[in-house]
Amino acid sequence: SWQLGIPFDQNFCLSILNNSYKYIPLQIITMPxxxxxxxxxxxxxxxxxxxxxxxxKKSTPTKRSLTFSSNxxxxxxxxxxxxxxxxxxxxxxxxxxxxAIKSDAVKVIKRMLTNSxxxxxxxxxxxxxxxxxxxxxxxxxxxxxxTVWDAQEDQWEDDMTDEEVIAIKYQMQTFRSRExxxxxxxxxxxxxxxxxxxxxxxxxxxx
Length: 207
Known about the structure:
56% of the residues lie in helices and 0% in strands. It is mainly α.
């Protein structure tokens, strides 16, 4: 049975996972909340997994239209050839600056791995550049790609198209990464609010 107390059709779930079992042990899967909301009792269309008549869909094309707003704003962007050397240098990073940024990032990552970051240093955004984290991230992407590819191949063999099933397979394969990203985003939000609050407090003191 699925966790979080939301009922779910186990047979349907097993049919979704029939090609993903080699990546996710069935006994440890927790149904992602996004999929639970998508697969709700009121969403009857998602429960339909019969074959889709592609030819019939092609014979009844949807009517499309194009409209233009009467209120248009244009921001002209000068071409690169129209810029002076000084403007180019002021607009983009130079090759030397890019090398310096990468060199500094490598030093920060090394200190991050040895827990020796300096007081004013921040490794946020460099977490996935660490060797082990980088390998895991690439593996997650490869598995997610393979999950979608296998689902598509199965549908091609059965001469059918069901985007919802493919989407659910992908969501179930990647929900741990999505939850981790959400948690990290919430932490960033807290830090940003602290910084804004501190700046606001200091500005009031100056008055």
